[in-house]
Amino acid sequence: MLKYLTPKSIKPPFARYSHGVEIPAGKRIILCSGQLGIGPDDAVPEDPGAQAELCFKNISAILGEAGLTLNDIVRINAFVSDRAHLQAYMDVRNRLFSDPAPASTLMIVSGFARPEFKVEVEVLAAG
Fold it and tell me: Are strands 103-108 and 119-126 parallel, antiparallel or unpaired?
């Protein structure tokens, strides 16, 4: 059983995430490379929310190869290329993950490998 760590002695999380997650001994750990909002047909939607959806769809496929699902994610590292994209990403994340939510970091970066990308997500899962 995972243990979600949100100490009462520090400020609660700003959004739907946990400050930490303890993975018990005996669990397999899957590390996913950063996934971009690109479909198998090379289509990249303009909307950052649609890109976030594709990021998590790709992650779901990767985890599925290991017999896991999005529910097995214990940490999310997300990157957006503009402050204006934060809410669209968070709306997708908040819809996909209920409480207790994974540990999470969200950063604004100057850009990605191609200018049309607005969101990238990498995760760590345990199952």
Answer: unpaired
Distances (CA, A) of 49 to 12, 45, 66, 109, 121: 25, 9, 26, 17, 12
C-alpha span between 123 and 88 (Å, rounded): 18
Q: Distance from first CA to last CA of the chain, Å, rounded?
A: 10
**pLDDT score recorded for residue 14:** 85
Averaged confidence pLDDT in the chain: 96
Position 71 scores a pLDDT of 95
Q: For 67, left (φ over 0), alpha (ψ -120 to 50), or beta?
A: left
